[in-house]
Each structure stands twice: as C-alpha cells, then as structure tokens.
C-alpha cells in the first residue's frame, strides 16, 4: 500500500501542476478575500498560480512593490490552492499516455492486484492474529521462569497457564492461516514486473485496478449516495459489511449500495447499467451468510441465469444451484439440504414452493411491473413471506411513477401508498427524496471518476432447443462457420437474440447508443429484423468508404438512443464511433485483434462515457472452446501488438490460424457430442 500511495502522490502532483498552469493568478486574491493585491504580479508576467509556485518567495519580493511579508503571503496562498487541487484532482490511468509517474503507479497497483481478492482477508487475519498473539505472549511471559512462577500469586499463575494453552491451541488450528499468510507474503515479495507487463494487465483488468486505486485514494462521498436524507445516510454509514465469504473488492459506491440494501432490508437498487449491481447483491449475500443465513434465492430472466451462476461462483464462496433445465429437481433438493444460493427464472418461479430464505434477489425487476402477470404474482407471493428483498433494475424510474409504485408495493406497501404523481412533477430530486427509503440510483458520471473507461461483460447463454438442434447439425457436418452462428438459426427462440434485445432495451431506457458487431452478414440481418428495422447500417465490406461514413454520421447525429449494425471486419478499421457507449459482440472472433480493433472504434479519445462491451457467448459449445484456445493468444496481443504502430500488419503473428482453430474445435465438438463428420475449411467470407 505504501508504494501505491507514494506513486499516487506523484501522479496527483503531476496532474495538479498541469491544472495549476491553467488557474489564473487572480484566484490568489480570491483565496485571501481580496487582502492581497496581485496587480504587480500580473504586470510582471505572472499569469497563473503555477508560475507563482515555480518562483521562490525571494524572487517574488524582488518585484517592485512587493516586500518580504507580501511575497511570503502570496506564495503561501498559491500553496494553499495547490494543496486543494491535489486533493480534488481525479486520477485516470490513460494507457495512451504512459508517463513515468503513471507507470510507477500501475506497477505498484499490479503487485496488489496480482495477489488477488485474498489480500484484504490476509491483512485482516494478520492484524487480528497479531493483536491476539501480543496479548497472549504478554500474559504467558512469566511462564518462561519456573522460579518466577513459584513466587507468583495463584491468579496470575493461572492466567499464564491459560495463555500458554491458548497459544498452543492457536498454533494447532492455524494451518489455514499460515498457508494464507505465506502465499500472500510470497506474492507481495515477488519482483516488480516491467511497465509494459503492468500496463498490459491493467488493460485486461482495469476495473480491479481502479477499485483498488479508489480504496487507497478515497472516493467522493456525495455523488455515490443518491439523494438520501441525513438520517438515512447515518444509518447506512453505521451498517457493517462482512467480507468473509466475498472474493471481490468493492468500489466505494458499491460498498455503499450493499450497506444500503442491508440497512433498509427491502429496497430497489437502480444503478445505471454497467455499474455492477450484481456484485453489490453478491456482497449482501456474502454478508448475510457470514451472519448465519443459509438459504438464498436469485430470480432473473432466463438469458442471464448462467451469468448469475458464474458471478456467484467467481465472486463468493457460496454454493450455487441453478434451478433450471433437466437437473432442476435434483438441484432444488441439494439446495434444500445444503443451503447456498438457488438461481431460478422469472417465468418458472411460480413452480417453486415458497420457503424461508435469507435474501430474495430479483434481477431486471422492471419485468414484474405489471401485477396481473403470472411472474409478478409469483414474485409478490415470495416478497410477502421474505424479510429481506433486493430488486435490481438499470431502467430509470423517475418518469414511470405508476410502474415504480407497483415495484415499491411489493417491498414497502406503506411507502407505495404515499407516493403521488406530484413527486415526479416536482423533479427527479424531489422524487428520489420521496422514495429514498426504498430506492437508490447512481449514474456512471457520478461515481466513475476515471471516465472514460471500459467495462467488459461476458453474457453466457444456454442454447434453446432449436439452437441446439441447429448446432448439432452443424457439428455433424463439420461446418465451423455454421457452428459459430447456430445460436441465431431459429429467430423466434434464439437465446442469444433474446439477450441482445434485452441489452438494447436497457440502452434505450438509458438513452445510450449501441453498436452491434458480428462477423456474419446474415446474423446482422436477423438482428435488424428483430429490431423491426430500427437500426442504422449494416456496415459491410460491400459499402464504399463514403457510404460507410454516411451511415456513421447519421448514427452519430441521431438524438439519444440509436443502434448501428456492423460487420466486425468492416467496422473495426478506419471509423470513429465514439458516439456509442454500448458495444455488443454477437459471437467471439477467431482473431482477437479483430475484436480489439472493433471495440477501439468506440473506446477512444473523445469518448465521454464508460464503454460497455457485452460478448454474447454460448455455454459449453463453440464459443467456449474458442475462448479457451484463444486466451493465451489474446494476452500476447494485448501485451505487444495493440500498442504497436504496426499492429494491423503484425496481428497475424500472434493470432492463431483460422484453419487450425476450426479443425481443432470441430473435432473436439464431434467427439463430445458423439457425432462424426469431416471438418470443412472456414469460408473466406461469411
């Protein structure tokens, strides 16, 4: 932590110097309430506070009309401004501007990030162990001398014997603690990595770096708290958050959101999409598990069930049981017996008997805004019998008071009865104040001070029955390209297409522009049809450069939400698409460089929002096989080719060949599915 703080101080000082170079010298007069006259400074060529700081008080007093006392006061006022700027300046690690100080900070952060989520627990264990050992060793010290023990009073002698016994028990039971501390210490003592390796890792895991940086630097405590009244803020601040069963560090606003849910028990977390609502929910689950709760239930759309299972498994120690598919009955019995988190769908919740759970989480809660639907009635029934309930929705509610009142009625009926349309007419601030006991929403620009950044989400979906049939046929034929787009073969039941439409709907609700990339023109045609033609493009290889730019310009000029369709190989080169902040990849690409270049069209200088990259991936099929094989190659590309001026010409040096990848995946899938056939060579064009 010390190295990070020192490097951070250097970065802040550098950023502050740049800021001070633009602050007019007249601000010195403001700081001193007009007591200092700065006319002489301005006439002598001192235009900014930075120039005053670069001069010494002695040089200032050489100016006509400025004595030693005034010079000292002027310089002190400039230092006061500099201190305020250093404390307020936002730190954003820019991979395109890797100066010495920012590189030192990234290297220092890399050491801690590389240790992983066990570091906070190791630090807490070490502190607790150290405190306990100090006390026991102090109490056991007399036992080192038999003579001293002989002349000691009975009570003190008994205390020393008890301390010895406690020490022996502590050492006997400390095997896991020793392993944790030994591994953490070994990780921390590893030599620092070169700057290029640290930057490469930062690019892959920037969220973890910024999370740790926020923990060290501290984050704003106003914008991340919504419009909560002071008494409620105090209640949330006093709420503890146990991280024993959590495997992920939280940003300040995420910790606040989790503690808000715990303090208020039955709430809606309405953070803007991309801020990590699922992580906040998992933090609540982990806390309640540490405090003795055993059974939990997550209810979500079918399209994100796999995501929830993976998130819970990777970000906590809780057992997770998907109550979906052929094994749902066995999974339900296992959940009832062992406890943990059951994950089921909104449409199948009505088949699950209501039981006692420590927390009910309902994701995409706006799907139950109509109380007459079967799914809404099932959710309402569970809410009536559950003490703690957490609704998650990224859809803003300020202008949908009737829908919002319905959701609140499931959680806090008395509050719902008090809500009136006038709260909305009075403005968003008044509305949020009225619903503060049950609703917390933060926006990206309020809490992610390092904007623009990039949030990458792997959207894992399971094949529908028709998807699987098309996939098995493609595998039997050895048709690699057909395998890659089998998830879109049955338009009406496509699981990937359903999730894509949900993501577009979320973006529309938040006024965000979307780019949909696919390697295949026919997949884009399917998406366009599903969107009822409400999309720009598609940009494809058949369009001239001028026509492509016209499509991009029309997309950019569109007010608010819009969707642009593009083949990844056509939209990935030569176009600036920073009007978009949501990127959807319909399938993984054979060449990681192709996807990276496509995403870079939106995630580039001029982007004012965090770019959300959603990759639609099929579970236990061609997509998963591709990622497994390409993982190492993608890391090589990230480390070297992306930051090379020759990236486009050298990308093939680190990308695996399409032919070998296709052959390997087809053969593996044929063996797994017990199908036979001859692998076809991939088509040069889709």
From TrEMBL:
An annotated Gene Ontology molecular function: ATP binding
CDD domains the record matches: DEXHc_Snf, SF2_C_SNF
Residue ranges of every copy of the Helicase C-terminal domain listed in the record: 496-662
The keyword Cell membrane belongs to this UniProt entry's keyword annotation: no
Keywords, ordered alphabetically: ATP-binding, Helicase, Hydrolase, Nucleotide-binding
One Pfam family of this chain: SNF2-rel_dom
Record InterPro entries: Helicase_ATP-bd, Helicase_C-like, P-loop_NTPase, SNF2-like_sf, SNF2/RAD54-like_C, SNF2_N
SUPFAM superfamilies in the record: P-loop containing nucleoside triphosphate hydrolases
PANTHER family given in the database record: SNF2/RAD54 HELICASE FAMILY (PTHR10799)
Record's protein name: DEAD/DEAH box helicase
Lineage: Bacteria, Bacillati, Actinomycetota, Actinomycetes, Streptosporangiales
């Amino acid at each position: 932590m010390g190295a990070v703080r020192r490097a951070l101080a250097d970065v802040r000082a550098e950023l502050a110097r740049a800021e001070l170079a633009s602050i007019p010298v007249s601000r010195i007069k403001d700081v001193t309430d007009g007591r200092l006259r700065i006319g002489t400074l301005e006439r002598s060529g001192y235009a900014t506070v930075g120039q005053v700081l670069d001069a010494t008080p002695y040089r200032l007093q050489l100016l006509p009309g400025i004595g030693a006392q005034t010079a000292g006061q002027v310089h002190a006022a400039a230092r006061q401004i500099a201190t305020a700027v250093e404390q307020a300046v936002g730190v954003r690690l820019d991979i395109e501007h890797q100066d010495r100080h920012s590189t030192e900070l990234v290297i220092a952060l890399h050491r801690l990030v590389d240790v992983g989520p066990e570091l906070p627990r190791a630090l807490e264990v070490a502190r607790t162990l150290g405190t306990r050992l100090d006390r026991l060793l102090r109490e056991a010290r007399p036992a080192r001398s038999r003579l001293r023990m002989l002349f000691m009073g009975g009570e003190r002698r008994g205390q020393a014997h008890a301390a010895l016994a406690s020490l022996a028990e502590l050492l006997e039971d400390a095997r896991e603690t020793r392993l944790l501390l030994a591994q953490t210490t070994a990780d921390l003592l590893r030599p620092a990595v070169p700057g290029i390796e640290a930057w490469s890792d930062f690019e892959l895991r920037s969220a973890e770096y910024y999370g740790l940086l926020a923990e060290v630097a501290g984050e704003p405590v106003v914008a991340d708290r919504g419009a909560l009244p002071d008494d409620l803020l105090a209640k949330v601040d006093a709420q503890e958050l146990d991280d024993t069963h959590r495997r992920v560090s939280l940003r300040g606003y995420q910790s606040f959101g989790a503690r808000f849910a715990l303090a208020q028990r039955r709430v809606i977390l309405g953070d803007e999409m991309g801020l990590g609502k699922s992580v906040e929910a998992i933090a609540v689950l982990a806390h309640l598990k540490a405090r003795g709760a055993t059974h939990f239930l997550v209810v979500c759309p079918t399209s994100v069930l796999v995501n929830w299972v993976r998130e819970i498994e990777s970000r906590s120690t809780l057992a997770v049981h998907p109550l979906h598919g052929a094994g749902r009955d066995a999974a339900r019995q296992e959940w009832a017996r062992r406890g943990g988190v059951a994950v089921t769908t909104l449409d199948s919740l009505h088949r699950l008997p209501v039981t006692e759970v420590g927390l009910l989480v309902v994701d995409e809660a706006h799907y139950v805004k109509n109380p007459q639907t079967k799914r809404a009635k099932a959710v309402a029934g569970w809410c009536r019998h559950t003490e703690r309930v957490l609704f998650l929705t990224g859809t803003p509610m300020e202008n949908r008071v009737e829908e919002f009142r319905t959701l609140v009625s499931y959680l806090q009926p008395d509050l719902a009865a008090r809500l009136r349309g006038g709260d909305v007419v009075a403005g968003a601030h008044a509305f949020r104040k009225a619903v503060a006991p049950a609703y917390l929403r933060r926006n990206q620009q309020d809490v992610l001070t390092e904007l623009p950044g990039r949030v990458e989400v792997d959207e894992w979906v399971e094949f529908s029955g028709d998807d699987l049939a098309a996939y098995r046929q493609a595998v039997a034929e050895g048709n690699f390209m057909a395998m890659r787009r089998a998830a879109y073969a049955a338009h009406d039941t496509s699981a990937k297409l359903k999730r894509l439409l949900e993501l577009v709907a979320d973006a529309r609700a938040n006024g965000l522009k979307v780019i949909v990339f696919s390697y295949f023109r026919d997949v884009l045609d399917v998406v366009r049809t599903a969107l009822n033609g409400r999309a720009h493009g598609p940009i494809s290889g058949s369009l001239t450069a001028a026509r492509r730019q016209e499509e991009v310009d029309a997309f950019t000029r569109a007010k608010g939400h819009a969707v642009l369709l593009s083949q990844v190989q056509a939209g990935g080169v030569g176009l600036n698409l920073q009007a978009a902040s949501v990127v959807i990849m319909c399938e993984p690409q054979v060449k990681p460089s192709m996807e990276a270049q496509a995403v870079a069209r939106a995630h580039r200088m001029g982007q004012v929002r965090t770019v959300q990259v959603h990759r639609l991936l099929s579970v236990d099929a061609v997509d998963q096989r591709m990622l497994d094989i390409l993982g190492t190659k993608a890391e090589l590309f990230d480390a070297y080719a992306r930051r090379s001026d020759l990236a486009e010409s050298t990308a093939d040096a680190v990308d695996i060949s399409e032919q070998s990848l296709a052959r390997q995946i087809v053969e593996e899938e044929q063996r797994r599915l017990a199908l036979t056939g001859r692998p076809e060579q991939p088509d040069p064009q889709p």
